[in-house]
Amino acid sequence: MAMRQTPLTCSGHTRPVVDLAFSGITPYGYFLISACKDGKPMLRQGDTGDWIGTFLGHKGAVWGATLNNEATKAATAAADFTAKVWDAVTGDEVLTLAHKHIVKSVNFTQDSSCLLTGGNDKIIRIYDLNKPEAEPQEITGHTSAIKKALWCKNDTQILSAADDKTVRLWDRNSTEVVKQLSFDMSVSSMEYIPDGEVLVITYGKTIAFYNALSLDMIKTVDAPASIHSASLHPDKEFFVAGGDDFKLYKFDYGTKEELESYKGHFGPVHCVRFSPDGELYASGSEDGTLRLWQTAVGKTYGLWKCVLPEELVSENSDTIYCTPAAPEIKA
Amino acid sequence: MRPHVSVLRLPRGPAPNGRGFDPNSPRFIALCPTTISASTETATDSVQIREEQRARSALRESFLRTLIAMTNKQVQFHMYERVKVEAKFGASDIDVLNFQISELHTPIGVQKEALLRCQDVISYSFDL
User: Region (Disordered) spans which residues (chain B) (predicted)?
Assistant: First the structure.
């Protein structure tokens, strides 16, 4: 029943891709940043996967990467014990924030004024980017390395997932825990959907959906293999997941039915995210590549072109976003 | 018969040299005004901007000229971890990320040809 999919493969990284993030939709389209163990995070045009630039400066594996909504700033978290903030237009390094251990996660507030970091020193930090020399606000409590820390509820609260098998919700002002979830095993990934306040958590073979405000469970779905990352479509009709068996799975969110599975990667899938317009999803793998997959296979979008049967060829080959006129780069 | 999806082309990969961020892209031109980003105060005075840019150009030019002057000369490099090495300078790459050097004298011997990672260098000196 499933149509075979031709994913678009983005090459360039030389080691496993461990994290990826999309920006919001900007007048120049939307953008994608990838974190890689080769220490060189890359910025790409979101709908085509075209490489725009590489952020050079980290001295170790980059574990986390994020963009602000306007894609004017990027932040990265690395094994060199620093988090860095970058100008995402020029590629210049703007700020280096020294930590005492490997940094795993970075996240901007909606207005890009503050940066949240979390990592192996078990402390969540909030940096005021307008006063970078000032000491960050610290939130302690986790008893193991933090995997992911995200702003939520209009940047008034923080969600964090750590290797201590808990997900905690913190109040930003009081720095106290508001609510906590405990699991039998480590949470492998977390995604926060502000529109609708949904939290997507993966652990073992399970993809779980929670209300981000109350941390009440909405539903759980089990996949055929151990899942490392999942992403909910903006319209909340489906979600995608990937993990140990190298495949990408697409599920119906309402019925929890597995709709499709796609092969393509040559290694475990570490991260998967839907684009802000929901037209595609990107996956990063141990095989060092990013792949872009269509949500509606057969649609003309980005670099995919629908070719109708018979001799009739679709005349609608306009891409939705103008890709910037980059010079022809020889592969 | 189902519609077939074809791919117009593959996503463009990284350029062989340089780190990208094309300054001629529409986004770069629109979002990077002529004000110098490193200035903490937004210099509204256009004369001040011009002066600063002039100074920056002069400094940049003199730096590039030192790279030319250094070619084939013996250079002492002071690096992190209290490392001091000496070598014959060959060339720099376009983004000043690596220096190509020869006859690198290290505590464990002389390396005939080497690439020095610029971010590891604190300072370097040579005789004109």
Answer: 1-22
Is B10 in contact with A8 (CB distance < 8 Å)?
yes
Q: Give the percent of chain B with pLDDT over 90.
A: 61
The residues with which B114 forms a beta bridge, in sequence order, are B101
Question: Residue B44 — very low, low, confident or very high, per pLDDT cuts 50/70/90?
Answer: low
Cα end-to-end span (Å), chain A: 35
Beta strand A217-222 with A206-211: parallel, antiparallel or unpaired?
antiparallel
| Among the listed residues B80, B123, B75, the one whose alpha carbon sits nearest the alpha carbon of residue B100 | B75
Token output for A2: 């499933």
Rg (Cα) of chain A, in Å, rounded?
Answer: 19
Q: Do B3 and A308 touch (CB under 8 A)?
A: yes
The 10s digit of each residue's pLDDT in A49-101 is: 999 999 999 999 999 999 999 999 999 999 999 999 999 999 999 999 999 99
* B26–A28 C-beta distance less than 8 A: yes
Chain A residues closer than 8 Å to B30 by CB: 28
Are B10 and A309 in contact (CB < 8 Å)?
Answer: no
β-strand A62-67 against A73-78: which pairing, if any? antiparallel
CA distance A21 to A24: 10
Report the residue of chain B nearest A31, measured CA to CA: B27
Contact status, residue A226 vs residue A185, Cβ threshold 8 Å: no
Give B59: exposed, middle or buried? Use CB within 10 Å, 0-12, 13-18, 19+: exposed
| A116 — pLDDT class (breaks 50, 70, 90) | very high
A257-306 pLDDT per residue, tens: 999 999 999 999 999 999 999 999 999 999 999 999 999 998 899 999 88
pTM above 0.80, yes or no: no
The CB density around residue A185, as the number of other CB atoms within 10 Å, is: 10
Cα A239–A245–A246 angle (5° rounding)? 75
pLDDT at A82: 97
ipTM of this predicted structure: 0.82
C-alpha distance from A144 to closest chain B C-alpha (Å): 31
